[in-house]
């Protein structure tokens, strides 16, 4: 499971600060992340890992860039450098060694992830608390309205007697 970046957390805190309803924010985030972002990432990964499709995309980009004035002379050198880089990263993975892994030590990343988890925990607690308080407020307002209406009807009936 991937932890949220500080940008996501800051965005959530600001949404809460400026009074954007949780469900409106949650549904917008869900649509953005689950529907839009995942499909773009899936298409990107498929295109990068599919050698035939990657070659096709590269050839089309090179063909289009040949029409740009001044790039036609620089393009062969650039393509050669990019091919070297591509071959370096697309090479088969090296074999796994039998080196024993050392003990886990504290690092900035682990401390930062702990801070993020604590912030998320307090954020979730605040959401639950705010939801419970708004529900309780609505319930108390209904009870108060019912009490006031019954008190008003009983006081008006006592005045007529």
From TrEMBL:
<keyword id="KW-0812">Transmembrane</keyword>
<feature type="transmembrane region" description="Helical">
    <location>
        <begin position="111"/>
        <end position="132"/>
    </location>
</feature>
<keyword id="KW-1133">Transmembrane helix</keyword>
<protein>
    <submittedName>
        <fullName>VACUOLE MEMBRANE PROTEIN KMS2</fullName>
    </submittedName>
</protein>
<keyword id="KW-0472">Membrane</keyword>
């Amino acid at each position: 499971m991937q932890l949220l970046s500080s940008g996501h957390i800051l965005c959530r805190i600001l949404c809460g600060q400026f009074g954007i309803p949780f469900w409106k924010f949650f549904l917008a985030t869900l649509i953005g992340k689950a529907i839009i972002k995942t499909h773009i990432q899936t298409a990107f990964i498929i295109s990068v890992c599919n050698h035939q499709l990657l070659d096709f995309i590269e050839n089309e980009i090179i063909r289009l860039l040949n029409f740009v004035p001044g790039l036609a002379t620089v393009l062969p050198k650039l393509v050669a450098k990019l091919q070297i880089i591509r071959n370096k990263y697309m090479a088969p993975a090296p074999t796994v060694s039998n080196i024993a892994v050392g003990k886990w030590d504290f690092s900035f990343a682990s401390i930062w992830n702990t801070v993020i988890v604590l912030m998320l925990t307090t954020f979730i607690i605040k959401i639950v608390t705010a939801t419970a308080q708004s529900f309780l407020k609505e319930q108390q307002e209904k009870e108060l309205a019912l009490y006031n209406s019954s008190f008003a009807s009983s006081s008006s009936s006592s005045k007529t007697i």
